[in-house]
Design goal:
By secondary structure, the protein is mainly β. It is 13% helix and 36% strand.
């Protein structure tokens, strides 16, 4: 492992807008039969482990006996104490002498802790959720953070263990199984194994997705059906969903294909085969019912038409296309980045030409986003060189956009970047060093001056959730005036008021580039 690199990495993340999550999430409760099955499986595993341990221990007994002499285990049962023994259970003669029985104030404290735990799971109307996929060589987990812009709370709400390795994600505000389908709070994960898992973020303790798109249900059948449903044959590299086409999910795959999926039926309704190499990026055009844009390792960018299943415009760039993003303020324009550090800004009505082309970073630019705030148009770019930069796109007569500000986010290579849908100047970044960061652009002097806003005296520049320390708050962000980075870590439950979280485990590093190129 390379020195200084985190044990796990954040490859993709996504925001959930305010009001989309249930205030009190549902909880999965295992039935008695399910618990019995789990106990039986656990017992079988225990017996298998004991068999192995007996074989190993028989080889080591000679050396172990010498090491255990000092503990006098042969006379352990003769030890005397202030307790009475019944088999393996010990009972104190007096409850007042038993340190494990709660008394008086301690019981009240326990009730208070339970109320705190319950309140910490409540999602307030002014809360955003931030979903992050944390991946290591052996494990992957979906972490769901709560972020409150007003009081600067930022903590882990819950997490979901994953069996597959997600390479991309997309929040979906549509639930085909609900009475009101417009109130969904789902997240789609594009996996290395070519499937798309859909998880319900309003359900806690879930161990499997609500449904999976792209499974080849016919591959094990002896008699093949006349008509086979389309499935991807390689890793899913990007996903896109739009409120304008809310029952349709677009996917880009390493099998060189862009597919459109009906979220109600779970089958592909459109397939585009214009590219000649892995398709790394796809995104719906804002406020459009038909158009989406795709970019590939072949260096080509297409605007695709859902209604005709054909491409309507094409561009060629220098290098492999890493990311495409539309200008949500003016959907005639989009930006594209490459593995060589170049960024292009284009008008989709003028195929083959670009407004800007410039060398934005020394290394690949895997993520970017166009902002339209305070009557300004600017672009943020995140790079494998570790920097996030903000560019002014206003002066289209200039040779290249003006660099407004650049910042080392302190996560090593930056894999992903996304602005908060309700607080656009708050940007979430995920990267190589086991970390996610929130950067408040309004608290950066160069950017606030460019936007013509006064930088508040109290706020935050960068939020840095990380593992706890003895002198910090556990996954609950507390603002410290003047600090560049603010760390949530360990907080005593008795002193907390309304939030809580879980301590994160350290995991091994993984490499996104290796996964995508394999």
């Amino acid at each position: 492992m390379e020195k200084g690199i985190g044990s796990s990495q954040i490859f993709c993340l996504s925001w959930v807008k305010r009001g989309a999550a249930k205030s009190d999430p549902d909880m999965v409760m295992l039935s008695a039969e399910e618990l019995k099955e789990l106990r039986e499986v656990k017992q079988e595993l225990k017996e298998e482990t004991n068999d192995v341990n007996e074989e190993v221990s028989s080889e080591e007994d000679g050396n172990a006996d010498d090491d255990l002499d000092e503990y006098d285990l042969g006379n352990y049962d003769e030890d005397e104490g202030d307790y009475e023994g019944i088999d393996n259970m010990y009972v104190y003669p007096n409850n007042e002498d038993d340190p494990y029985i709660l008394k008086g104030d301690e019981e009240e404290s326990l009730d208070s802790d339970e109320e705190l735990e319950k309140s910490s799971m409540t999602v307030k109307p002014e809360d955003n959720l931030l979903i992050c996929a944390r991946c290591s060589q052996n494990t992957s987990v979906l972490e769901v953070f709560v972020y409150n812009h007003e009081n600067k709370d930022f903590f882990v709400h819950h997490d979901i263990p994953l069996l597959e390795t997600p390479l991309c994600m997309q929040w979906i505000g549509f639930d085909p199984g609900a009475d009101d389908r417009e109130t969904g709070n789902l997240v789609a994960l594009g996996n290395f194994n070519s499937t798309i898992d859909i998880w319900d973020l309003n359900v806690l303790n879930t161990l499997e997705p609500v449904f999976t798109i792209g499974k080849d249900c016919n591959k094990n059948l002896k008699k093949k059906p006349r008509r086979r449903n389309f499935v991807h044959r390689d890793a899913i590299l990007d996903l896109s969903w739009s409120e304008n086409v809310n029952d349709c999910l677009a996917s880009a795959s390493a099998d060189e294909i862009v597919a459109l999926w009906d979220l109600e039926m779970g089958v592909a309704t459109g397939v585009f085969k214009d590219h000649s190499s892995k398709v790394q990026s796809v995104e719906w055009q804002p406020r459009s019912n038909a158009n989406l844009c795709s970019g590939s390792f072949d260096g080509k960018i297409y605007v695709l038409d859902k209604t005709t299943n054909t491409s309507t415009a094409q561009w060629k760039v220098d290098g492999e296309v890493e990311r495409i993003t539309w200008n949500r303020g003016n959907n005639h324009y989009f930006a594209a980045s490459t593995d060589k550090g170049f960024v292009y800004y284009m008008d989709w009505r003028k195929p083959g030409s670009n407004i800007f082309k410039w060398k934005a970073h020394k290394e690949a630019v895997p993520s970017l986003s166009v902002f339209a705030s305070f009557s300004k148009c600017f672009l943020s770019t995140a790079s494998s060189d570790g920097f996030v930069k903000v560019w002014d796109l206003e002066d289209t007569d200039a040779k290249m956009p003006k660099l407004v500000h650049e910042k080392d986010i302190k996560v090593g290579m930056v894999h992903c970047l996304q602005p908060n849908p309700d607080e656009e100047l708050v940007v979430a970044c995920g990267g190589q060093k086991d970390a996610v960061r929130l950067w408040n652009l309004a608290q950066t002097r160069n950017i606030s001056s460019y936007l013509g806003i006064s930088s508040p005296s109290e706020g935050f520049d960068t939020l840095k959730p990380e593992g706890g320390g003895d002198d910090h708050d556990d996954n609950v962000l507390k603002y410290v005036a003047g600090d560049d980075y603010i760390k949530p870590s360990k907080i005593e439950m008795s002193s907390a008021k309304s939030n809580g979280g879980k301590k994160r485990k350290k995991k091994k590093k993984s490499a996104l580039k290796d996964i995508k190129s394999s």
